[in-house]
Design goal:
There is one protein chain. By secondary structure, this protein is mainly beta. It has a single domain (about 5-20, about 85-290), classed as outer membrane lipoprotein receptor (LolB), chain A, CATH 2.50.20. The protein contains 4 helices and 11 strands; from the N terminus they run H-H-E-E-E-E-E-E-H-E-E-H-E-E-E. The protein has an 11-stranded antiparallel β-sheet, covered by helices on one side. The radius of gyration is 31 Å and the shape is globular. The two termini are about 25 Å apart.
Length: about 300
């Protein structure tokens, strides 16, 4: 299975969304007042009709017809302004930070689990030059997958060998195909639903950043579009839909100079993966996520 397909699946299973696949921090443009763009013309008063002339005794002429009053011009109806999409509280680190490191630990509580009993991911990310280094560890602590992306070049470690590919991928090592765009949109919708369910739970300092703590308890569902270049035999093993429930706490940065990114979270996620050609798979994971080294100097180099 190709690198971008692996990363897409791992990003989908991590509900709060892996920074590689999710960028949902853009704020909606403020709505302009509906009538602000058009200047209303002044209202003109109707013209009074002239008085009829008084006839002389010798010749009386019909009174001239009064002039028609001038109609008051009707101002054009203002063009309706589309309702702005609600601004999201949670900002995407990939959209708002210059660099960061992230650590994710997923521990299986129930079910067999797509990722095994425990799965750990560490990622370093830099905006300029666009680059990332992602390492995924299996239950035994050994490296399951390692990916380095610098610009349009991506290196994926298979065993002890690095395989290089060029073009068509961004700093996260994920293709910008239509399938990935659909996945990104679905993750943004999940984040928006989470925000609607969040409740303030006090303040805290996480990884050196002052944060607002929230509790969350909500349902979610999303489709998992399969990239077109995935071989048919691999398609049979890939889920087409994910649904479930997430409950726990998240900490969002609330400090001057730091955008409202998720600095830390600890949630329990009940996930059901639905397949086209096999039985559904349900699992319960406990996920812990930390964002640190925010805007710190980070250098990512090609493998040696």
């Amino acid at each position: 299975m190709k690198c971008k397909t692996l990363l897409a699946i791992f990003a989908a299973v991590g509900l709060l969304c892996s920074l590689v696949a999710c960028s949902s921090g853009e704020k909606a443009e403020p709505t302009k007042p509906a009538a602000a763009q058009a200047t209303q013309p002044p209202t003109e008063q109707p013209t009074s009709p002239p008085k009829p002339a008084t006839p002389t005794p010798k010749e009386a002429k019909p009174t001239a017809k009064p002039a028609e009053p001038t109609a008051t011009p009707v101002p054009p109806s203002p063009t309706p302004v589309a309702e702005a999409k609600p601004s999201m509280l949670i900002a995407s680190p990939g959209d708002t930070l210059d660099s960061f490191r992230m650590r994710i630990t997923m521990r299986l509580l129930e079910g067999e689990g797509l990722l095994g009993e425990e799965f750990n991911t560490e990622q370093a990310w830099v905006r300029e030059p666009p680059s990332s280094h992602t390492v995924m560890y299996g239950p035994s602590g050994g490296t399951a997958t390692e990916v380095i992306t610098i610009g349009d070049s991506t290196w994926m470690k298979v065993g002890s060998t690095w395989i290089k590919s060029e073009g068509g991928q961004g700093a996260g090592g994920v293709s910008s195909s239509a399938a990935q765009e659909n996945l990104k949109a679905s993750l943004e919708d999940i984040l928006q639903n989470m925000e609607n369910a969040m409740k303030p739970a006090g303040e805290d300092t996480v990884n050196g950043v002052h944060c607002q703590r929230y509790t969350v308890d909500t349902e979610f569902s999303m489709s998992l579009p399969i990239p077109e270049d995935v071989p048919e035999e691999a398609r049979q093993l890939m889920p087409t839909e994910m649904a479930g429930h997430v409950k726990g706490e998240i900490c969002i940065a609330n400090q001057q100079g730091v955008p409202p990114v998720i600095v830390g979270s600890q949630t329990t996620q009940e996930i059901t993966l639905k397949y086209a050609s096999r039985d559904n798979e349900t699992m319960v994971y406990e996920e812990k996520r930390d964002l640190y080294d925010i805007n710190a100097p980070i250098t990512i180099e090609p493998p040696k």
